[in-house]
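By convention, the token line describes the chain's fold. To illustrate:
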Amino acid sequence: MKRLSGKVALVTGASSGIGRATARLFALEGAKVIVAARRLEQLESLVAEIVECDGDAIALAGDVRSEGFAVALVELAMSRFGRLDIAFNNAGTLGEAGPTTGVSEAGWNQALATNLTGAFLGAKHQIPAMLKGGGGSVIFTSTFVGYTGSFPGVTAYAASKSGLIGLTQALAAEYGPQGLRFNAILPGAVDTPMYRAMNDSEASQTFITNLHALKRVASSDELARSVLYLASDDSSFTTGIAMLVDGGASITRT
């Protein structure tokens, strides 16, 4: 029995990295999937991959900072598949990096708008659709940065991603009685385009690798399996958590 049979799932930030891997895994596990990101070409290739494996998916390109896009995604789920059971609000950005005194107000606002406000807007419109179906699971992508540790030069990123943990807990408390679950994953380093952009030298990659107890970075597929757990009924009594999937980065001092 596939773990998401009969379910409809929405994934943002699906054009690459963790989002793309998770959308593929959701489809393999039986979900009908709505995939969202800004880059339509990459979304269309993802849909083609899913369909080639006998899955069912549809793409919609847009910007998660827009409330209209959040509305459109839910409307697409309801019109195409008749329900919404799972939402992985994964879209994110590193934002403007560097010394805090040099970060512009626009750069700060852009990071919060994408990482935190975008997730809020998504959940705001996903909740009513899930309530109609009697329940659901919403997952956010946060990070260990700003939670169990941090680095210089990532103030906007850390603050916006930390805010997702508070959002997760508040929503879990508010909607738990109505059968909705809200959880956040907190990845360590994952080999994605964002990771490579942040760590574009061998020395930097070696440093980051050694921060982890496992002495390696994760693949997107490994993170997708953790998201699958939170999306599925395997985690039916799990809500309001900040789940570290960080390869031991939070406990490593060697």
